[in-house]
Write a structure and sequence with these properties.
Residues 390-566 form the Exonuclease domain. Residues 5-268 form the 5'-3' exonuclease domain. Keywords: DNA damage, DNA repair, DNA replication, DNA-binding, DNA-directed DNA polymerase, Exonuclease, Hydrolase, Nuclease, Nucleotidyltransferase, Transferase. Its EC number is 2.7.7.7. This protein is α/β, with parallel strands linked by helices. Among the domains are: 6-173 and 252-265, Rossmann fold, CATH 3.40.50.1010; 349-429 and 442-568, 2-Layer Sandwich (Nucleotidyltransferase, domain 5); 592-696, Taq DNA Polymerase, Chain T, domain 4; 785-895, DNA polymerase, domain 1 (Orthogonal Bundle). The chain is built from 38 helices and 23 strands. The strands form 6 sheets. Strands 3-2-1-4-5-6 form a 6-stranded mixed β-sheet. Strands 7-10-9-8-11-12 form a 6-stranded mixed β-sheet, with helices on both faces. Strands 21-22-18-23 form a 4-stranded antiparallel β-sheet. Helix 17 (469-477) packs across helix 23 (580-590) and helix 29 packs across helix 36 (881-917). The chain binds a DNA duplex through helix 1, helix 2, helix 25, helix 27 and strand 16.
Length: 980
DNA sequence: ACAGAAGCTTA
DNA sequence: GTAAGCTTCTGTT
């Protein structure tokens, strides 16, 4: 073996188990010999050998071996008798397959290596080491983390089933430490599967952190006294010996006294007849045929090999059957019929829309026709062309999905269907190994191009069309470019077909309306670990992709825009959607200030408290299970400990929901309470205190969420990366998170939220006199409801009575059912049904409203908000009663939730001009469905609050005047917790 | 690696 | 009983 050679080492034992568990039971037809793991192994090796010989997937293999465990006893058992002690015996129908797989390896003409006293991993380590010494490369075929300590610049890992390569960067990304520190990390964390102790309470995240702090394990152990977190420090000090032992156990032996050298593993050509003979013996018909074809073997001429089976195979069998996997995905989404009347004569909007749709679906798209622009004159010509046509579709290509992080790589323009061009700006070459790599030559300079682009983007006479414009708006704003006027095809689709389609992404819309499947982003830029970033995509490929995006966007606009007028949705689009995009773009760009110190302190507290509860839980159950695993938890709680188990989930697991555990706690059980408490702490820590700091932008120092405009069916926004619409508020522990959201120096946060907006909307749309009066008088709405229902006075009302009325009020908003109400109130379904009946007797208007909503939803297939937004329920007529009932409840809720969403959208669109008019500098930062958060200079707080409240309370006007007043509560404070 | 389930956070 | 998004665990190609 020499420099330039490439040794492939297959972790045979690993794949046996993986194949066995991944594949359905399979047995040889003639005698019932179980063979599923053998088939999985053969398929994997066959694919791997083809890839390994193939020069264009990388450095081809020159040497090749499959390594197996010899037996379960190894030198590690001498070190630590408990090692892998919790492993149970392999399943009965796997046992005979161990031998068969060794036969398979021989049939592939591959060496089969194993050695008494050592695990396969040790042999792999030894051979990798030898390859490295010889200057050769090695690839380990496995995805086992135990092998990651071997990764180096010349040793990588590869998983052929997932086509996933693991090199040094992947190890660092996955575990937070380089491969040479994997041993230290594993020693700290331990491994429950192999029964390696480690330090309790230290997981990979903490271990990586500690190793980064102290450099390596020895230093860490020597200076453990310096660890700040008392719990963590104590835990490590107490377990020093265990850690040292764990390190010995996880360290792979690189000097196994091997009998075969890598030179013995020289890759030989496959022996077609030999392999086919084996596969025939296994009765793998498909693979036999495939291998015969590929190796030029006449399978009919080959006799099945005789394979001796070590363990009686006939014991298995009669109950096994070959399970064929059926995956006939039903394609059911044909473009639905349009709500247009094509019998009409003349050029009605509906006719025009239908014509456009038909035309668009028949025109072909040719990505080869797009042009790459590399000189300024051509760019100017294209911009002139856009000025002539008055419309241009465009799309920006960047390095990131996050517009605040994205660097501009290029952009595309389309002036007519089929006529598109791409302007590359930031494509790089020779990236990867070398540091970044330089710009590809021949690209226009960013500055001059942006000046030209600005001229076009801000030209009042040219309509700019984009898909998800808000993204481009943020990216362009960061380069000092504004975009106006504009249309957004995603928002058009959302307004036209909200609820009717599976999302409003461009790929989906293109298939639906143009009958054309665009090039997938993943096909040009890669996905997962093969993702290279758009800046590293070749310019010709980028031109096809980006040109197509602009072309498709323009064609979609031609189809969708006419439908707006045809369906009477122009005002929804123009009042509630289009103007909101730049408002949200600004909010996202501003971001909110988050105090890192507060979160870090909270994280420490949570870790400590959780660890304490963890120990109490372990003491109670007498075992260190993974508390975060509902499966393990259920088994212990209801299986071994025999607690009165409630329901099971649909997958047959015991349910361990908070509700159920609370009930058990109420019956006096100690453990469930602790589990609920632990979960709360774990949730707060992982989702908030640990994750949020990672979202602080390196330059702005603030957190910039992404608001999705077209994600919900009802018209609400959603927030992600991070989601700032679900920051805890309901209990004291969680509210501490909110104290980390703060205003800048000299500023305060104002939180302004609508009081009971959905109930007010209900009172208005259902026209309920008692409710309207209660709101007009500013009365307690739940108490009034209770008083009406139960005939008790509002004065001195028992809190339980009010609570029930409140649950019913919310139930109405959610499309009430006896089942749901019963659950909510922990009462019987009969009792809940009686409440609902009583409620409808007192408020017959609400029953009428519900019935009317269901009827129109069924008749039209959609419901409308007060402002005319349509929300489609294509399944409202489903034959399945449960599906139908769900759609009915959703449609009842949609009118209320959607109207409230429309109202706050209107407020958001108006608030900035109102503040400006009042000469105030307040900046809107967040929306949380019925709440708006602003950052305001301290000396402007007093003046700002009434402006905000005024805009919000009058937001429905003048389009609609509600018969119920809207009420907004607003407060200012230095942090979000106090302001709310 | 990825998808789905379970669980938890919000309005 | 409505509407969302995120984390962890688990099973699977």
């Amino acid at each position: 073996m020499k420099k330039g050679d490439h040794l492939f080492l297959v972790d045979g034992s690993g794949y046996i188990f993986r194949a066995y568990h991944a594949l359905p039971p399979l047995a040889r037809k003639s005698d019932g010999l179980p063979t599923n793991a053998v088939l999985g192994f053969c398929n994997m090796v066959w694919k791997l050998m083809r890839d390994a010989r193939n020069t264009d997937v990388g450095h081809p293999a020159t040497h090749f071996a499959v390594i197996f465990d010899y037996s379960s006893k190894t030198f590690r058992n001498d070190l630590y008798p408990e090692y892998k002690a919790n492993r149970s015996a392999p399943p009965e129908d796997l046992v005979p397959q161990f031998g068969l797989i060794r036969h398979a390896t021989h049939a592939f003409n591959l060496p089969c290596v194993e050695m008494e006293g050592y695990e396969a991993d040790d042999l792999i380590a030894t051979y990798c080491h030898m390859a490295e010494e010889a200057g050769a490369d090695a690839t380990i075929i496995s995805s086992d983390k135990d092998l990651m300590q071997l990764v180096s610049p010349s040793v990588s890992m590869y998983d052929p089933m997932k086509d996933h390569q693991i090199g040094v960067p992947e190890v660092v990304e996955r575990w937070g430490v380089p491969p040479e520190k994997m041993i230290d990390l594993q020693a700290l964390t331990g491994d429950s599967v192999d029964n390696i102790p480690g330090v309790p309470g230290i997981g990979p995240k903490t271990a990586a952190l500690l190793l980064e702090q102290f450099g390596d394990l020895d230093t860490l152990l020597a200076r453990a006294g310096e660890i700040k977190q008392p719990k963590r420090r104590q835990s490590i000090l107490e377990n020093t010996d265990k850690v040292r032992l764990s390190r010995q156990l996880v360290t792979l032996k690189r000097d196994v006294p091997i009998t075969e050298t890598p030179d013995d593993f020289l890759l030989e050509p496959s022996n077609g007849p030999k392999l086919v003979a084996f596969l025939k013996a296994m009765e793998f018909t498909t693979l036999t045929r495939r291998v015969a074809e590929a190796t030029g073997t006449d399978a009919a001429q080959v006799e099945a090999a005789f394979i001796p089976v070590e363990h009686g195979a006939s014991a298995h069998g009669p109950d096994m059957e070959i399970v064929s996997s059926q995956t006939d995905d039903k394609v059911q989404d044909t473009p639905e019929k349009q709500d247009t009347d094509e019998k009409d004569e003349g050029d009605t909007p509906a006719r025009l829309a239908a014509q456009r749709a038909r035309a668009a679906a028949t025109e072909k798209i040719d990505v080869e026709a797009y042009i790459t622009i590399t000189d300024l004159q051509t760019l100017k010509d294209w911009i002139d062309e856009a000025f002539e046509t008055g419309i241009v579709a465009f799309d920006t290509e960047t390095t990131s999905l996050d517009p605040m992080q994205a660097e501009l790589v290029g952009f595309s323009l389309a002036t007519r269907p089929g006529r598109a061009a791409y302007v590359p700006l930031g494509h790089r070459q020779g990236a990867g190994d070398l540091l970044g790599g330089g710009l590809v030559e021949g690209q226009l300079p960013m500055r001059e191009v942006l000046a030209q682009l600005k001229r076009l983007m801000e030209a009042p006479s040219v309509l700019k069309v984009a898909q998800n414009l808000k993204y481009d708006l943020v990216v362009m704003n960061r380069h000092g470019i504004d975009i106006a006027p504009y249309d957004d095809t995603m928002l058009l689709s959302y307004v036209l077909d909200g609820g009717a389609a599976r999302g409003h992404g461009m790929d989906f819309l293109s298939e639906k309306w143009l009958g054309h499947k665009p090039i997938a982003f993943g096909d040009v830029a890669g996905t997962g670990k093969k993702f290279i970033g758009f800046e590293n995509v070749a310019i010709d490929k980028a031109t096809h992709y980006a040109g197509e995006d602009a072309d498709v966007t323009l064609r979609l606009w031609q189809v969708l825009k006419p439908r707006l007028a045809a369906t009477g949705l122009v005002s929804v689009y123009e009042r509630l959607e289009r103007p909101l995009a730049p408002v949200l773009a600004r909010m996202e760009q501003r971001g909110i200030l988050v105090d890192r110190q507060i979160l870090s302190r909270l994280s420490g507290e949570l870790a400590q408290n959780a660890a304490a509860i963890e120990e109490e839980i372990y003491a109670l159950i007498g075992e260190r299970i993974n508390i975060g695993s509902p499966k393990q938890l259920g088994d212990i709680l209801f299986g071994r400990m025999g607690l009165p188990g409630g329901s099971k989930t649909k997958t047959g697991q015991w349910s361990t929901s908070a509700q159920l555990l609370e009930d058990l706690a109420a019956e006096g059980h100690e453990l469930p309470r602790k589990i609920v408490d632990w979960r709360q702490l774990a949730k707060l820590k992982s989702t908030y205190t640990d994750a949020l700091p990672g979202f602080i932008h390196p330059e702005t120092g603030r957190v910039h969420t992404n608001f999705a405009m077209a994600a919900t069916t009802t018209g609400r926004l959603s927030s992600s990366d991070p989601n700032l619409q679900n920051i805890p508020v309901r209990n004291a522990e969680g509210r501490k998170i909110r104290t980390a959201f703060i205003a800048d120096k000299g500023h305060k946060l104002i939180s302004a939220d609508y009081s009971q907006i959905e109930l007010r909307v209900l009172a208005h749309v259902a026209d309920i006199a008692q409710l309207k009066q209660a709101f007009a008088e500013g009365a307690d709405i739940h108490a009034i409801t209770a008083s009406e229902m139960f005939g008790v006075p509002v004065e001195n009302m028992p809190s339980e009575t009010r609570r029930r009325a409140k649950a019913i009020n919310f139930g109405i908003i959610y499309g009430i059912s006896a089942f749901g109400l019963a659950n909510q109130l922990s009462i019987s379904r009969e009792e809940a049904g009686a409440y609902i009946k009583k409620y409808f007797e007192r408020f017959p208007g609400i029953r009428d409203y519900i019935e009317e909503t269901k009827a129109t939803a069924r008749e039209l297939g959609y419901v409308e908000t007060v402002f005319g937004r349509r929300i489609h329920y294509p399944e409202i007529r489903a034959p399945n009663a449960a599906v139908r009932a769900f759609n009915e409840r959703a449609s009842i809720n949609a009118r209320l939730q959607g109207t409230a969403a429309d109202i706050i959208r209107r407020a958001m669109v108006r608030i900035e001009p109102a503040l400006e008019k009042a000469g105030l500098s307040a900046r809107m930062l967040l929306q949380v469905h019925d709440e708006l958060i602003f950052e305001v200079a301290e000396d402007e707080v007093e003046a700002t609050i009434p402006v905000i409240c005024n805009v919000m309370e009058n937001a429905p006007m003048p389009a609609r005047t509600l018969s119920v007043p809207l009420k907004v509560d607003a407060r200012a404070a230095h942090n979000w917790d106090e302001a709310h």
